[in-house]
Amino acid sequence: MSDAPAAGDPENPTALEALHALATAETSITESLRHREVYTSRGLLSVLWHEPVAAVESKPAALVMCGGAMGGLLGPGHGLYQRLGDEWSDRGVRVLRVSYREPNNLDLCAHDLACGVEWARDAGAERVVVMGHSFGGAVAIRAAVVMTASVAGVVTFATQSAGCEVAGALGGRPLLLFHGDRDEILPSEASLMVQAIAGHGDVEMLPGDGHLLAKSDDVIAERLQAWLPEVLGI
User: Fold this and answer.
1) pTM surpassing 0.70?
2) Of 3.40.190.120, 3.40.50.1820, 3.40.50.720, 3.40.190.290, which CATH number belongs to 57-232?
3) Contact at 8 Å (CB) between 63 and 96?
4) Residues 69-78, mean pLDDT to the nearest whole number
5) Rounded to whole angstroms, how far apart are CA atoms 234 and 230?
6) Could you tell me the CA-to-CA distances from 203 to 90, 188, 213 in Å, in that order?
7) Which of 66, 135, 193, 225 is deepest in the core (most CB within 10 A)?
8) DSSP per-residue letters across 58-121
9) 3-state secondary structure of 214
């Protein structure tokens, strides 16, 4: 465990500086996956970081993902975030999976996701796509709205509409919304409402699927394979 670096300009701190981190710990799980923990007075911020292996050329792009109101690192479906981390790091794209300090605190969770974007940017990513499931859809949109220079696009999975009132400030950046038409927690109209607030975006309805999108792993992964390269500029 290492002591955290001193903060920069206190009048205009970055998201990472504003954490006021007490200490940071990190370990490599595999050649392409590491686990970082940042201790703060408001809780523990964790990230699983998929890094391209040495034989793969790193692209100046990244995906940064977050979970729902309970937090978590696996995402919807059957560990969709793990799958995307493996697939896209194999293509040279860094993938960060963020675990919140305080789940269900929208402002704090958006701050945590912004830290993930800054980590990706500091590692060389010039274009970042943020992704969030359920409550995390609002987290992703709010982080994107304030990080116009780094966030190139947003993907949501079964998003809530609450907290997405700022979506109009995305300024036309690509927005892709997945939603099951049998969502038992958040009806598919929530994604349609976010699309309307943003004034743009593609809504992908997933027939017969519920809130966890447990039937649509392959469909989602294939759609992202077609959608992400242009948005990431790779």
Assistant:
1) yes
2) 3.40.50.1820
3) yes
4) 97
5) 7
6) 27, 9, 14
7) 66
8) PPSEEEEEE-BTTB-SS-STTTHHHHHHHHHHTTT-EEEEEE-SSTT-HHHHHHHHHHHHHHHH
9) coil
